[in-house]
Amino acid sequence: MSIRFDNRVAIVTGAGAGLGRSHALLLAARGAKVVVNDLGRSRTPGNEDGFAADEVVAEIRAAGGQAVANRDSIADFEGAQRLVEQAVAEFGGLDILVNNAGSLRDKTFGKMEMADWDFVLKVHLSGTAYCTRAAWPVMQKAGYGRVVFTTSNAGLFGSFGQSNYAAGKMGMVGLMNTLKQEGGKYNIGVNTVAPVAATNMTEGILPADIVPHFRPEHVSAAVALLCSESFTQSGVICSAAAGHYALVQVCSTFGLQLDPAAIAEPEALLERWDEIADASRLRTYPNAAAETGAILEAIQALRA
Ligand code: NAD
């Protein structure tokens, strides 16, 4: 089945460079009308006064696609609202939102200024929430939407010197897990990509010899899948890098069920920690209530 976006309107944030540019080019090549958002200046020698978003729009148009530029910051709610309003005004609706914009202020936690904490949380976590919140009523009204978040292995697994970034990136997983429930009845899918790619952000970090494997286009293939009408799952985290694709999940051990009529001593938990943490059997839950339900079942089984 071919994946096309004809008659679909898409916003890609931070699409003036790197991953966002690659996502915008792919969606447009497959028929989407794309709003290319980026506040950044061009990095093209000789065009330093120009804007990156305008260059990507020109690329899309030169290839026969449809696109307009938007230079608002998604790190403030008014900017996010203007972005969504522009999509609706220019193209008549909004079907796809790819939250991709981001930047870094790395420091070890002990040296981190709270201004750097706030800045990074604002761009990654709040910016994703602002754009999604602005898009939500449009998608609810249409009874259709595909929203993609961009997390990072830094948040999912931890990364030295990136506490602010990691917190923002993991925060959006919590946001997704709730929106997958709230968006379900409106046919709004909310999914997350966890990329690794050679871009400005990873310049000097990825060893030079492996850079050619980590083309942004590998990630864009997964983003296009998550944006498609055929992808009806919601709440998925798809890891995508260098041609490798995997599902990342939050999971729990089966754990240890004690009788809730008695309060355990912490020493007893220490003694039985191996049973609590036994990862030979793992399970996931569709929502928070299901986890509580599993505990109630375990208590019943204990008392039976
Ligand atoms: P990049 O620096 O090449 O591109 C990010 C773009 O976002 C830039 O063009 C920048 O101008 C724009 N941007 C920043 N703040 C903005 C704002 N407030 N409003 C609008 N635009 C803004 O980086 P990239 O590697 O392409 O990163 C894209 C996304 O992928 C980011 O969210 C990043 O955290 C995430 N990510 C990247 C990697 C990787 O390996 N490259 C790994 C994990 C996650």
Largest β sheet strand count, sense and barrel closure: 8 strands, mixed
Distance between the termini: 50 Å
Shape: globular
Q: Order of SSEs, N→C?
A: EHEHEHEHEHHEHEEEHHEH
CATH architecture label of the largest domain: 3-Layer(aba) Sandwich
The residue fraction in helices comes out at: 40-55%
Ranges with pLDDT <50 over ≥5 residues? none
Give the helix tally. 10
- Beta strand count: 10
Number of domains as seen in the coordinates: 2
Question: Concise description?
Answer:
This protein is of the alpha/beta class and 304 residues long.
Report what the structure shows.
With 304 residues, this protein is an alpha/beta fold. The chain has 2 domains: 9-248, Rossmann fold, CATH 3.40.50; 251-303, Helix Hairpins (Orthogonal Bundle), CATH 1.10.287. The chain is 43% helix and 15% strand. The strands form 2 sheets. An 8-stranded mixed beta sheet has the order 3-2-1-4-5-6-7-8, sandwiched between helices. The chain has a two-stranded antiparallel ribbon with strand order 9-10. Strand 6, helix 7 and strand 7 (237-241) form a beta-alpha-beta unit. The protein starts with 8 loop residues before the first strand and ends with a helix. The model has no long low-confidence stretch (mean pLDDT 97). The structure holds nicotinamide-adenine-dinucleotide. Nicotinamide-adenine-dinucleotide binds at residues 13-14, 16-20, 37-40, 52, 73-75, 100-103, 123, 127, 150, 152, 195-197, 199-202. The site of nicotinamide-adenine-dinucleotide has 30 residues, from helix 1, helix 4 and strand 6.
